[in-house]
Amino acid sequence: MKTIIEPFRIKSVEPIRMTTRVERREYLRAANWNLFGLHARDVIIDLLTDSGTGAMSSEQWAAIMRGDESYAGAESYYRFEKAVQEVFGIEYVIPTHQGRAAEHLLCQAYGGSGRLIPNNTHFDTTRANIEASGAVALDFPCIESLDTTSDFPFKGNMNLPALRACLEENRGEVPIVMVTVTNNAGGGQPVSLENLRAIRALCDEFELPLFVDACRFAENAYLIQQREAGQSERSVEDIVLELFSMADGCTMSAKKDGMANIGGFLAVRNPKLAQRLREWLVVTEGFATYGGMSGRDMDAVAQGLREILRPEYQEYRHASIRYVVERLAASGVPVVLPAGGHAIFLDAKRFLPHLPWNEYPGQALAIELYLEGGIRSCEIGSLMLGQTDPKTGEPLPAARELLRLAIPRRTYTQSHMDYVLEVIEGVWQRRDEIRGVEIVEAPKVLRHFTGHFRRTKRAEEVTTA
Ligand SMILES: *Cc1c(COP(=O)(O)O)cnc(C)c1O
User: Fold this and answer.
1) Helices (DSSP H) in 73-155: which residue ranges?
2) Which of 38, 122, 227, 423 allows an S-S link to 126, with CB 3.0 to 4.6 Å?
């Protein structure tokens, strides 16, 4: 059949509250023009993140009832551990309440001042954890990722010459290499097996462990199956096992490809490292057989890790994202190509060419999509990723100004996506009138979460004022 359907029926529903444009303006003003400050009930379609926002299956809800809440040695833990070991092929499993707690533990082992940790692109919490430990987080995205219009199939890849140069220039200062699959900040784009093999070879040459940020491992593996030469006949499970066979460990947020609302883990091959990590785990997260999770959460993740690998689920997931991306591209809206794994990325620099980077075009666009149709999205540009020049202290722009519309798993239907398309097209029609954004006040780290913003005055308002 040509039509790819949602491979599930809906058993439980949650009403959406409709709002007017006037109401939305008021809500946004009260939230200091920061969409993270909105009440979720005031959002019509919530594409802020795909993290923990997906729908659980009837089997996951059943697993929740089986949850064993014993403090030590709960059956839920053993089911969770077995699922992680079978899916990823990594032996020692350390449960955490979500991904960033796993990153924090990894940084306790490998971070610290004077150290450098390279990645294709660090996720914002990974960067924050590395920097909080005193180390420096370095991004080496492949050159192809900078051109948002090309259809290069593996824009998540690491820039190998840049990684090699970094390892040569900083011998003894790089404790581990990381790679994020899929590359979130880089547009939800996959990393190829070929690139991973080359990263592994560099790690072997420089005798360094490789850690994978595994949050969207199944989406990355599906895109390898679809796009990489010689992979089309393999199962997603099999590709996942090969991918992680190259890693010494991984950090995982179960809120993404764990199909759960909370949870995460760190998995490692080295028993001595596992021992140290468990000693730290008990101080901040919990005992070794639950970390930061309840028994029922571990059971939901164990079940979710199996469901994410189902071919019909992956086929539908990618078809629904491709559907939106292809329609936007056909109407000339600047969208990152090719369609990535979990989100639609608008290129705000090309959408709003009249706004300079320090008027945060991505945030300006996020505000307009909310005003137009109550859609909540997330800027991934100079607001989230902008750095300060270490020498002058001046703010620096990010490489790209993107707006991410993340699609929660199994949550919205095709008509919701048609509505999203209509809202984006409405904003596209009046793009020339859109105003920029300035920062009123913001913390130093992760400022996009809690910063206060305001809209800049339009040029003609300034001159008449
Ligand atoms: C979400 C995410 C994290 C952090 O996980 P949390 O569960 O939100 O703490 C790390 N890396 C990537 C790529 C992510 O998408």
Assistant:
1) 75-88, 99-110, 124-132
2) 122
Looking from the CA of residue 102, the nearest atom of ligand 1 is 9
Q: What is the third-level CATH fold of 58-307? A: Aspartate Aminotransferase; domain 2 (3.40.640)
Q: Is 349 in the pocket of ligand 1 (CB under 6 A)?
A: no
Q: For ligand 1, atom 3, which residue shows the shortest CA distance?
A: 99
Residue spans in the chain of domains classed CATH 3.90.1150.10: 21-50+311-464
Q: Are 185 and 124 in contact (CB under 8 A)?
A: yes
Cβ of 99 below 6 Å from ligand 1: yes
Distance 129 CA to ligand 1 centre (A): 11
Pair of tokens at residue 48: 């802020």
pLDDT tens, position by position, 223-239: 999 999 999 999 999 99
74: left (phi over 0), alpha (psi -120 to 50) or beta: beta
> Where does the pLDDT of residue 465 fall: very low under 50, low under 70, confident under 90, or very high at 90 and above?
very low
Per-residue b or e along 5-29, where b marks 16 or more CB atoms closer than 10 Å to that residue's CB: ebeeeeeeeeeeeebeeeebeebbe
The fold adopted by the segment(s) 21-50+311-464 is Aspartate Aminotransferase, domain 1 (3.90.1150)
pLDDT exceeds 60 at position 463: no
Q: Is ligand 1 within 6 A of the CB of residue 126?
A: yes
Ligand 1 binding pocket includes 80 (Cβ within 6 Å): no
Q: How far is it, in rounded angstroms, from Cα 367 to Cα 437?
A: 9
Residue 181 CB less than 6 A away from ligand 1: no
* Residue type at 378 in one-letter notation: C
184 lines ligand 1 (CB under 6 A): yes
Whose CA is closest to atom 15 on ligand 1? 215
CB 61 within 8 A of CB 255: no
> How far is the C-alpha of 253 from the C-alpha of 98, rounded, in Å?
5
pTM: 0.93
Residue 186 confidence (pLDDT): 59
> What tokens does 411 get?
């949550």
